[in-house]
């Protein structure tokens, strides 16, 4: 009723068109008024300006953080930690005996000891020990006092009169000081303070030692970087068994590697023979030998070794199956391609040489066992031994040697190892039998088998010069 018109006709009422808000004058004026801040109170203006300033500061910090790759606060914290660590290590270093202090201690020991009538050795009893401690403390200072503790005296072998020789004690002091200084130096290079050294940190430590090692002082400057790379690789081979790319500092300090490196303190022309230099991995002679070997094998001079190039190693006495297994197990996939295109870089070559030259060590034998384990099962069967030695036998016959039975060699290996499981030879079996290096040589190198086959003759040749 109420929706109709008065004349009874129904029709839609005309709709009013509302203009858009943006076209309305009062809206435009209000937006302009608020946007400029002119209509805001002083508190609102201050709040708006503060937000704008804080936003600009935040954006600036984000930009600097992105450029530096770190959060500013974290960077400051890191610098403070490094400074604190540096000051602590410097303080510890100042507490150590220096070269002059050690010389003074040796003089004190010799002046206050007694001579053994029977052997002529210089010795001291506990009373002498305490007296020398007092003299050293007066001349050197309190920092030498810790070496003269009763427990240290008890560490050394005593004669019937309760005396110890002064030389072993002095060598103990020198070794303790040397290892402590090495620990401090390595800790300074440990950038993330996690107790491990990365390759570049280890190389930096070795580079710092070179001027103090008598046999390395004359090293050509152009060879220093390569030498540090070669030297550092041995530490990682023995102190980084899981190949994580970092070596535990404690393991490095206790390893034979550090002791071998420190042997280079001796003056070469007086105390070290050429043979000893060649056998020491860290000697300049050995490092140059490794480089020359790699360059001679790298026929195409591309900086890596193919399987064919590596077959020329050691005059080609290594078996083809062993070379294949080395690439299968120890050459990183994707390093220089894939499949047969993979090649051995210098770092992998160093591990390869270290394994072959240290076959009797757990680390070297572990490297080789992975190659011997043809099926990747963690053990070797008689079939594996037969397959591995077949290549050795082939090279043996090619060299004009007598015919031999592969089964006899296989049985001999089994007798040498005496595995816990009579059907399997594991890595633990090879380590326990103390002949694992010999067994590995017999299975991968025809020269190694020849040395085992002629071991009695070789032993006689070694003994004859001594008898003369």
From TrEMBL:
Q: Which GO terms describe its molecular function?
A: calcium ion binding
Q: Which Gene3D superfamilies match?
A: EF-hand (1.10.238.10)
Matching SUPFAM superfamilies: EF-hand
Residue intervals passing through the bilayer: none
Q: Tell me which CDD domains the record gives.
A: PPP2R3C
Output the PROSITE patterns linked to this UniProt entry. EF_HAND_1 (PS00018), EF_HAND_2 (PS50222)
Q: State a GO cellular component annotated for this protein.
A: spindle
Keywords for this protein: Calcium, Cytoplasm
- Give every EF-hand domain span: 177-212, 285-320
Top-level division of the source organism's lineage: Eukaryota
Q: Which GO terms describe its biological process?
A: cortical cytoskeleton organization; microtubule cytoskeleton organization; regulation of dephosphorylation
| Annotated localization | Cytoplasm
Q: State the InterPro entries in the record.
A: EF-hand-dom_pair (IPR011992), EF_Hand_1_Ca_BS (IPR018247), EF_hand_dom (IPR002048), PPP2R3C (IPR039865)
Record-given protein name: Serine/threonine-protein phosphatase 2A regulatory subunit B'' subunit TON2
- Organism, by scientific name, is Mucuna pruriens
Gene of origin?
TON2
